[in-house]
Amino acid sequence: MSLTLLTAPAEEPLSLADAKAFLRIDTPDDDGLIAALITTARIEVEARTGRGLVTQAWRYAPPRIGRDGLVRLPIAPVRQVTAVRAMRPGGVTVLDAGSWLEDLSTTPPSIRLPIAATLGATVEIDLSVGYGAAAAVPAPLVHAIRLLTATYYERRAYGDEPGPSAEAAAGLLAPYAARTLAGFA
Question: Which fold, 2-53+133-175?
Answer without folding.
Answer: Hypothetical protein yqbg (1.10.3230)
